TrEMBL record:
Recorded GO CC terms: cytosol
High-level lineage: Bacteria, Bacillati, Cyanobacteriota, Cyanophyceae, Pseudanabaenales
Coiled coil: none
Biased composition (Polar residues): 15-25
Protein name: Chemotaxis protein CheW
Gene3D superfamilies xrefs: CheA-289, Domain 4
Annotated SUPFAM superfamilies: CheW-like
Species the sequence originates in: Tumidithrix elongata BACA0141
């Protein structure tokens, strides 16, 4: 299920802005893209990331009596890392379900106040099926989420959304922009 978002068009003609570049520009922020469903991509600012792990599902130990969005825990550099099914948390189909055939998943390690990195703050792992690419996006191009999404269960985890118009051969693509600190706070 892709999140439909309305976009407005301008009546004035202006040259297209280059967005989603793989090179840095002034007033831009770097993001990592990844999928929460076959039709919905999200992105998270790299300043909120610590590391990306490739884990077999056997490395994630299930814990009884926790929220269904929590897949379990794993060992990360001697720390216990809680692993959360990001797709399920956001209202999409869970990663680990009946008929699931993959044996590995990518776990994106997010630490609250990630600029402090290793030694401080709580960390969680966001399990996703596919990691995409890194790209640069101008901050002013991140739009507030519409009320229908902002007021939904996933709204508290979003900064907004970004419309990728550079892939014009495939049509434009809407990426939800995650708030890493809000995701970590939800599991404190």
């Amino acid at each position: 299920m892709a999140i439909p978002l309305k976009t407005t068009s301008s009546t004035t003609s202006s040259p297209p802005k280059q967005v989603g570049s793989t090179s840095q520009k002034a007033n831009s922020e770097q993001f990592l893209t990844f999928s929460v469903s076959p039709t919905q991509k999200v992105m998270l600012a790299t300043r909120q990331l610590v590391e990306i792990l490739n884990l077999s599902l056997g490395q994630i130990t299930a814990i009884a009596d926790v929220a269904p969005t929590v897949m379990g825990v794993c060992n990360w550099r001697g720390e216990v890392l809680w692993v959360v099914d990001l797709a399920y948390l956001m209202g999409f189909e869970p990663i680990y379900r009946s008929g699931y055939t993959q044996t590995n998943c990518s776990v994106i390690l997010v630490r609250q106040n990630a600029s402090q990195r290793e030694s401080q703050g709580i960390a969680i792992g966001l399990a996703v099926t596919q990691v995409g690419q890194m790209l640069w996006c101008e901050s002013e191009q991140i739009l507030p989420a519409p009320a229908t999404i902002a007021n939904s269960g996933m709204g508290k985890f979003l900064r907004g959304y970004w419309l990728n118009e550079t892939g014009w051969l495939e049509g434009s693509e809407t990426l939800l922009v995650l708030n890493g600190d809000a995701l970590v706070r939800a599991f404190q």
